[in-house]
Amino acid sequence: MHGGDLIASVLARQGVEFLFTLCGGHISPILTGAKAQGIRVIDVRHEATAVFAADAVARLTGVPGVAAVTAGPGVTNTITAIKNAQLAQSPVVLLGGATATILRGRGALQDIDQMALFAPHVKLCESVGRVKDLVPTLERAFEAALSGVPGPVFVECPVDLLYDEATVREMIGAKAASEAKSLPDMALQLYLRAHLARVFAGAGKAVARARVVPELPTAFPHAIARAAKLLQGAERPVIVVGSQATVRGPQETARLRDALERIGAPVYLSGMARGLLGARHPLLYRHKRTAALREADVVVLAGVPNDFRLNYGLHIGRKAKIVALNRSESDARKNRRPTQAIIADPCESLLSLARELDAGRDVLAPWKDRLRTRDREREQEIEQQATATAELVPPLRLFATMDRVLADDSVLVADGGDFVATASYTTAPRGPLSWLDPGVFGTLGVGAGFAIGAKLVRPDAEVWLLWGDGSAGYGLAEFDTFVRHGLGIIAVVGNDASWAQIARDQVTLLGDDIGTVLRRTAYEKVAEGFGGAGLELRDAAAIDDTLARAKALAGAHTPVLVNVHLASSDFRKGSISM
Ligand SMILES: Cc1ncc(C[n+]2csc(CCOP(=O)(O)OP(=O)(O)O)c2C)c(N)n1
Fold first, then answer.
1. What is the pLDDT, as a whole number, of residue 152?
2. I want to staple 305 with a disulfide (CB 3.0 to 4.6 A). Which of 35, 284, 334, 373 is the partner?
3. Is the pTM of this model over 0.90?
4. Whose CA is nearest to atom 13 of ligand 1?
5. Average model confidence (pLDDT) for the chain?
């Protein structure tokens, strides 16, 4: 067993099914080792995609997603995706190749200080120095990724730890002492032999152990009791549930829904929690959240910080009592001091709260009616706007149709600006863990990787990649990956020949669209060039038919790109993008 095999044995014991990668000489043994363990190796066209895909797997399964990238530029190419995972609190394990330990700092290919680069962005950042440390270091990394506030980890695996000893001996030019021709050569050989002995000491002893799920951060009973009392007395409660409430993966979502039903307060869902209650649910409200928060007397923030998405806490009325359920102390207290902070897993805290409360509190009926009326009014407004006709395809009409034709198992991936923000108001995720967006880092370019991860985890589901035309540019080459790995993904490109979300503010404030203009590019041909299918949609009358064709193609494992030429829309006018 060489070091690559040892790493693969840990991945297998941790329940990892996919390893995302872009190859490089420094990591070959990890890839062959993974394949030998039955782990599916998915080779992509950009290292960032590998990490985005691992991130999606983590979010959808609750098991850390894993990517392996080669030393130097392979590793540096992942920084944005790793930062995105950190801010989205997603448990990703990144394995980085590195120069052989003995060549460090001696001018070897791709030798940079990778630890300094990653340390600020990950929960654990370790460089392994001996073969026998590979297994325990990686096991610690998996645990760290999931514990407390989940997040990415980085393990650097120098190449001389990955091959068997004989190969490494040859690689670094170590010979038998008798072969040394001079005194300096003899000294060098002694040094190399000592180094090798250190690197390989005890190498055979490491055995991967079964996955350890870190202990759940749970709440103090008195804190739950106080929060329950606040909720019990509330007349206008609102619960906002965010991504962190779903980090434990699909096994917990049914219990979470039951808890919300038992609590019985109106619910707004955000981030990865979208879809938790299905597309329609008596407790689910989708529109006019700001008005609801302003009028609420008790607001429960379950895994939701008071960041820019809640206008730094200003969306919540000044007199409202805030209950913050969060694994992160700093997120729980961000910008507003909560009446009751519960620093624990928000899903578990909601379950505990539900147990404390009396069910069926119909005192809330007038409040719910008020919110429902507003929700319906907004929905009707949108439906009305969706009937508008234009020469090209009005985005609201596209999404109204999509909302009708989505399969119940659909996963929606959002990568873009105005196009995907419009989708988020008009196209409802169908079930738990069926919506993927970058999260608070707002990273464009997540789409292809997220879609790859989603389609692998849910091979029978429809995976819809909603792509702004600008954002599509980051990942179009991954159509090649979709095709090579038989991933029937439906990419819908909102082609407005613009980085519209930015153009909107820039033109209004500065009177100039410089830097924001694109072309009405034939993106469908790019997909065809990579071996996928391409459809063009210019006429609203053809939306149904085109989406049906796309679904049929994807169902037959053909990735398809629908290039939708959008009519201009002011649906997003006035929304802030900073
Ligand atoms: C990596 C990255 N670069 C730039 C931005 C800034 N940004 C936010 S939205 C946006 C426009 C997105 O354009 P597009 O994908 O075409 O969607 P549209 O707004 O046109 O619907 C840009 C450039 C960002 N969020 N992330």
1. 98
2. 334
3. yes
4. 499
5. 95
Residue of 79, 501, 520 to mutate, ligand 1, most atoms within 8 A of C-beta: 501
Give the span between the Cα atoms of 451 and 86, in whole angstroms: 19
Given the structure tokens 């909107």, which residue do they identify? 504
What separation, in Å, do the N-terminal and C-terminal C-alpha atoms of the chain show? Answer: 51
pLDDT digits (tens, 9 = 90+) for 412-423: 999 999 999 999
Share of the chain above pLDDT 90, in %: 86
Going from the Cα of 415 to the center of ligand 1, the distance in angstroms, rounded, reads 8
Neighbours of 223 (CB within 10 A): 18
* Sheet strand arrangement including 92-98: 40-43, 18-22, 65-69, 92-98, 153-158, 125-127
Residue 408 in tokens = 């119940």
Residue 182: pLDDT band with limits 50, 70, 90: confident
Sequence letter at residue 252: E
The alpha helices in 336-394, defined as continuous H runs, are: 346-356, 365-385
Phi, psi of 364 (to 5 degrees): -85, -5
SS3 content of the chain, % helix, strand, coil (to 5): 50, 15, 35
> Counting Cβ atoms within 10 Å, is residue 521 exposed (0-12), middle (13-18) or buried (19+)?
middle
- State the average pLDDT over residues 269-285: 96
Residue minimizing CA distance to atom 1 of ligand 1:
444
Binding-site residues, ligand 1, Cβ < 6 A:
416-419, 442-445, 468-471, 494, 496, 498-502
Query: With contact defined as beta carbons under 8 Å apart, do 447 and 471 qualify?
Result: yes
